[in-house]
Amino acid sequence: MKALVLIPTYNEKDNLPILVADLMAIPGVHVMVLDDQSPDGTGKVADALGEQYPGRVQALHRTGQRGLGVSYLEGFRRAIPGDADFVCQMDADLSHDPKYLPAMIAAAAAGADLVIGSRYLNGISVVNWPLRRIILSSFANFYIRTVTGLQLNDITTGYRCWRREALATLPLERIVSEGYAFLLDVTFMAADAGLRIVESPIIFVERRIGASKLSSGVLIESLITPWKLILRHGRIRSTRPRSS
Ligand SMILES: Nc1nc2c(ncn2[C@@H]2O[C@H](COP(=O)(O)OP(=O)(O)OP(=O)(O)O)[C@@H](O)[C@H]2O)c(=O)[nH]1
Ligand SMILES: [Mg+2]
Fold first, then answer.
1. Per-residue pLDDT reduced to its tens digit, 31-47
2. Considering only CA atoms, which of 182, 130, 126, 174 is closest in space to residue 153?
3. How many A from CA of 167 to the centre of ligand 1?
4. Cα 6 off chain centre by
């Protein structure tokens, strides 16, 4: 079993070594850091981790347009022709605890095409979020569900695990969105293609070190994207996916 974890970074020099050390404790897990020329030197930290864990950690120094969506797309493009059984996605800011990864990989090994690390499967599982952030995120998920027909509790989470062969079937080159809209876009594409999506519970912990990079432009894009998706493809009509 090989799982490649894609980690997009922008100014995460203090968080990244902690996350990678925890991931390296899980057998079969490999890491690809997707750094966007972070001014704080995260790229150098990623290179050092590559030397510390040869053959398991790889640092990709992106050039050109910066962004979460374009970084993930570049990671997918590199991972798809590779030999990993599973391709996972995680934030670098320690919000996504690696302890949930084995259960997510197991769900994919058991037949799910996409496993979503869900904050909203058992009530609301977030730590250190102000009430307004909880309301915003819950409303965003309710809004996206209502407009698109996607029956998932957490559509904007960045903690995921794909079966590589299933990911390879998607027309990813069509995606142009960023941030939360990117995450919605790719999830919608997976559901529209009939992939089997399951949710696996996680407890999300708000970052303690470093700053958030998601702008109001990205939030507005995530309000518009659901409408773009249904205008192009229609609403999702599949039955409610099962949780793992
Ligand atoms: N490569 C790359 N990574 C990014 C970019 N913007 C954000 N990231 C990374 O994407 C992940 C999620 O970004 P965050 O800023 O934590 O977004 P968020 O979790 O919605 O916001 P917070 O709750 O404030 O942390 C982190 O690992 C970031 O370092 C970018 O432009 N390029
Ligand atoms: Mg974060």
1. 999 999 999 999 999 99
2. 126
3. 22
4. 8
